[in-house]
Amino acid sequence: GQRYAGFNHSHLTEMLQEREGVKISRPSVRRIVLAAGMRSPKTRRASKHRRRRERYPKEGMLIQVDGSKHDWLEGRGPELTLIGSIDDATGKVPFALFREEEDAQGYFLLLRGMVRRKGIPLAIYHDRHGIFERSAWEGPGSLEEQLLGEEPRTQFGRLLGELAIESIAARSPQAKGRVERLFGTFQDRLVSELRLAGAKTLEEANRV
């Protein structure tokens, strides 16, 4: 029926095995679905960039983080922001969570979840959001920072400093390619799983 409508062939194969106990190959799923007159949703293709930044060589060295505001619940509930992370070396997701908005508290919770699961990373790669970087008009920073001649930092920036995590700001949207592609995958797969679970609230979305 319509239970798995919107799932691409690979995702449907995984769901049948995980949720229904049906072990069937992806080519077989594809043949059955096509025979039933249903097409797989279009897969997303990564945009081509002129130069790719080299991946960090080992897991835990660099984590990319970002927030994605989207209609994750497809109108069943409020529009949410997914705050997520991806390991630069492996493409694994250390932690992610839904928030009402992209906010500092969300990134504090993200970092706590990442550290509990995977330990402290060497560096975090992020955009130039005010959560990570202070604007000049916000003032000169703390007295300690002024005395040490340091750049003024946000609360989140100070936490990174206390944990000895290097803070790296992306110079362009393209530089965050891996985390952007992760959100593309989430928008294909996670939306379908939230629909399958019938999630309607922030709490239910986070449980999924």
Describe the structure in your own words.
With 208 residues, the protein is of the alpha/beta class. 38% of the residues lie in helices and 14% in strands. It is built from seven helices and five strands; from the N terminus they run ααβββαβααβαα. It has a five-stranded mixed β-sheet with strand order 3-2-1-4-5. Strand 2 and strand 3 form a beta hairpin. Helix 1 crosses helix 2. It is elongated and about 60 Å long. The two termini are 22 Å apart. The mean pLDDT is 81.
**Total number of strands:** 5
Residue share in helices? 25-40%
| Arithmetic mean of pLDDT | 81
Form type: elongated
Strand order of the largest sheet: 3-2-1-4-5
Broad structural category:
alpha/beta
Low-pLDDT windows of residues? none
Q: How big a fraction of the residues is strand?
A: 5-15%
Radius of gyration: 20 Å
Q: Helical region count?
A: 7
Biggest beta sheet attributes: 5 strands, mixed
Order of helices and strands: HHEEEHEHHEHH
Terminal residue distance: 22 Å
Present the secondary structure layout:
Blueprint: H1 9-20, H2 26-35, E1 62-70, E2 80-87, E3 96-99, H3 104-118, E4 123-126, H4 143-148, H5 155-162, E5 166-169, H6 177-197, H7 202-207
Parallel strand pairs: 1-4, 4-5
Antiparallel strand pairs: 1-2, 2-3
Helix pairs in contact: 1-2
Question: TL;DR?
Answer:
With 208 residues, this protein is an alpha/beta fold. The protein has 7 helices and 5 strands.
Protein traits:
5-stranded mixed sheet, 208 residues, 38% helix, alpha/beta
